[in-house]
Q: What sequence folds into this?
């Protein structure tokens, strides 16, 4: 980890919060700090997580980002990244999303998992993950960037809570055994036009594999996944831009559909 | 007409001998109608050599393909029996100019389809559906062409491989598809990328061929169009496709 003082970490974290509070997007933090180091980036993210938790936001889950090779190559990563999901980021199927709260938004289609057990301890396996999953839901993740023009590299996106903004969950839970997480087709439609298509395998080969990565990582960093947590396991296809007034529908074959309205 | 016949001979010879040619549009002012006339004449030359028409293909049906080719229209081409490669067979790389492959869905018709039809009518004429890989091979240098160029060149169609036929009572609107090279995923998509539903492509096929005085015949195979961008083939590759609910198909390149 490069020599970045705690003050500068706090400063960077505060500069991101200022954008969340309504400020204009900022210049890439990697330039401001002169580093693209992921450890520094997670330190900034963690500073904000602590800030939000002490200010009463409730942690309800995690998101996994950079789950496709294309995105990893774009960012210069060789593994996924993660961010925190707070209760106020969760929207329900068809609920109106205040567009003005978003930051250069784009949408992606994902499989969300809800956990019925903690995923803690060393040496977690895929079987542990499968046992711990209560059900799956289709989820639209609305990503955003507090960095100007989405000019992001590893440090920028990780520091910025993995470019999370909010997410929309479907309401018909599906058991793991009742859909194919690898070959399930995914489409996002806007005005009847497919704007993003893909399949489960686009997420690290399998959304469950991505979830195992996350579960182990969360144990390693001391914030293990808990019973009741939601995991947004990663995009099944390319990002699609959205504008104010858009209404989009995500369909995942076997998981059902979910809609997002941007008012 | 003599000019069209001459251009048909040019594209036919290019395909037959796997030789690249400059774009026709570089030296001729061709419209889409003339381009389809050249395609018909070039396929007639194949028929005169004993090939039989067994169906048609749709092209540029996905946003990814349109972006890749820089065009914005759905196009079609003809399939002959000589273009069919058996599931699991090896193709010879030197029979092609610069072949690419893309994942598709294939329809087998049990009844003819003529002119304007709804998607429901089109799907009612379907006997079976199968996973399909289409080998596209533009005969033009650097795979670069205008819309009339590609249409004249049988819409780049070159060969195709089909998996086993399935009963058609499957919802085709959003089937996950993964194409692998040597076991590694290279393209991931959904059948939704094919005009939102492959059935729309079949209905469009019926409408489009009517402009050339044709109908889709019972027993014909219709390739609905690529669900993702195409990838370049090279000798030694093993190519496979898995389609949700439809099964798999594949071939190798030697």
A:
């Amino acid at each position: 980890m490069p020599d970045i003082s705690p003050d500068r970490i706090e400063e960077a974290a505060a500069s991101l919060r200022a954008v969340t509070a309504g400020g204009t997007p900022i210049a890439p933090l990697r330039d401001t700090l002169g580093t693209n180091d992921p450890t520094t980036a997670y330190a900034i993210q963690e500073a904000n997580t602590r800030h939000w938790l002490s200010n009463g936001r409730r942690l309800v889950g995690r998101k996994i980002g950079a789950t496709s090779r294309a995105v990893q190559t774009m960012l210069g990563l060789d593994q996924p990244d993660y961010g925190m999901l707070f209760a106020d980021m969760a929207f329900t199927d068809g609920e109106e999303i205040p567009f003005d709260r978003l930051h250069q938004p784009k949408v992606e289609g994902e499989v969300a998992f809800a956990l019925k057990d903690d995923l803690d301890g060393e040496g977690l396996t895929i079987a542990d993950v499968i046992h711990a999953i209560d059900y799956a839901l289709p989820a639209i993740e609305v990503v955003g960037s507090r960095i100007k023009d989405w000019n992001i590299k590893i440090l920028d996106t990780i520091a910025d809570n993995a470019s999370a903004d909010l997410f929309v969950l479907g309401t018909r839970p599906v058991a793991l055994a009742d859909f194919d997480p690898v070959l399930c087709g995914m489409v996002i439609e806007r005005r009847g036009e497919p704007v993003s298509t893909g399949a489960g395998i686009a997420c690290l080969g399998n959304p469950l594999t991505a979830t195992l990565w996350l579960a182990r990582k969360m144990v390693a960093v001391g914030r293990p996944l808990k019973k009741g947590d939601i995991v947004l396991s990663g995009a099944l296809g390319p990002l699609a831009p959205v504008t104010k007034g858009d209404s989009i529908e995500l369909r995942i074959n076997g998981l059902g559909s979910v809609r997002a309205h941007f008012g | 007409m003599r000019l069209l016949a001459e251009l048909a001979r040019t594209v036919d010879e290019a395909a037959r001998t796997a030789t690249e040619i400059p774009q026709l549009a570089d030296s001729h002012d061709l419209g889409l109608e003339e381009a389809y006339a050249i395609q018909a004449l070039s396929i007639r030359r194949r028929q005169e050599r004993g090939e039989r028409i067994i169906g048609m293909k749709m092209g540029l049906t996905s946003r990814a393909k349109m972006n890749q080719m820089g065009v914005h229209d759905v196009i079609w081409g003809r399939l002959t029996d000589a273009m069919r490669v058996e599931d699991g067979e090896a193709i010879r790389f030197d029979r092609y100019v610069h072949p690419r492959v893309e994942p598709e869905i294939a329809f087998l018709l049990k009844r003819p389809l003529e002119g304007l039809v709804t998607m429901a009518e089109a799907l009612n004429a379907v006997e079976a559906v199968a996973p399909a890989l289409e080998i596209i091979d533009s005969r033009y240098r650097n795979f670069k062409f205008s819309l009339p160029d590609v249409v004249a060149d049988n819409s780049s169609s070159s060969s195709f491989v089909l998996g086993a036929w399935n009963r058609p009572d499957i919802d085709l609107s959003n089937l996950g598809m993964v194409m692998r090279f040597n076991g590694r995923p290279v393209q991931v998509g959904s059948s939704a990328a094919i005009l939102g539903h492959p059935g729309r492509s079949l209905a469009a096929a019926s409408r489009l061929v009517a402009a050339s005085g044709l109908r889709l015949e019972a027993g014909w195979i219709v390739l609905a169009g690529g669900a993702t961008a195409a990838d370049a083939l090279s000798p030694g590759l093993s190519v496979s496709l898995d389609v949700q609910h439809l099964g798999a198909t594949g071939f190798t390149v030697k």
Summary: The mean pLDDT of chain B is 95. Chain B touches chain A at residues 62-63, 171, 173-178, 185, 188-193, 196, 227, 242-244 (CB under 8 Å).
